[in-house]
């Protein structure tokens, strides 16, 4: 009891120097613990005596406002470490054996639209879609990237295979399976090969897919346009695209002649 666990969490952001901690397996106790930001450390005192081989659980509630690293977390990331000053068996900093992956595209996500690979798309017009992003985590064959594009129009469902501009080392095999679902305004891209971490991804989805821009146009960097992935080594929930173009439109008006 009162011996300390030191948990090293590089890149995590703690807005306060003290956090509320719950102990679900130690009588559901609650304690207030200390953060040492310059060392990326959370210092946690044991609230009770714990016998050898007894499982402990520490919960840091979301109400503390802790933020995950900007670049995400890799699966079983060795930079996440733990140590203890336990009198009966101190332990130096040791990598945590198992950690959940969290993906990140940082600020790299971008969409552009054009009639067929060049020029500028217009409201209610058929367009090709160019997607750019740089994942901070590796991505695998079968991982799916999903774009939510509200008010875009297309066939009820449509699919095709395309070659990414950057995934060019796949022995001629198409690198992407692309599908559109009008009911959810969703464009899904399924990788047909691996993508290294921090390698830029560029894909051109041609007009063959039959997708048109909204009749009301788009605002620049419209937050409703989102990207997500189910990547096994770092899933990302729906997140607003960082860069998307504005597309204007004119409302129909009556023209009256004055005599």
Describe the fold and architecture:
With 259 residues, the chain is an all-beta fold. It has no helices and 15 strands. It has strands at 4-8, 18-23, 29-36, 41-45, 81-84, 91-95, 110-114, 128-133, 144-148, 157-162, 176-181, 186-191, 201-205, 226-229, 236-240. The strands form three sheets. Strands 2-3-4-1-5-6 form a six-stranded antiparallel beta sheet, with no helix packed on it. A six-stranded antiparallel beta sheet has the order 10-11-12-9-14-15, with no helix packed on it. A hairpin with a 5-residue loop joins β2 and β3. The model has no long low-confidence stretch (mean pLDDT 90).
SSE inventory with pairings:
Layout: E1 4-8, E2 18-23, E3 29-36, E4 41-45, E5 81-84, E6 91-95, E7 110-114, E8 128-133, E9 144-148, E10 157-162, E11 176-181, E12 186-191, E13 201-205, E14 226-229, E15 236-240
Give the strand line-up of the largest sheet. Answer: 2-3-4-1-5-6
Radius of gyration: 25 Å
Proportion in β-strands: 25-35%
In total, the number of strands is 15
Structural class, judged by helices and strands?
A: mainly beta
The percentage helix is under 10%
Low-confidence stretches: none
The rough form would be described as elongated
Averaged pLDDT: 90
Task: Quickly count the helices.
Answer: 0
The biggest sheet amounts to: 6 strands, antiparallel
Q: What is the H/E string?
A: EEEEEEEEEEEEEEE
- Cα(first) to Cα(last) distance is 94 Å
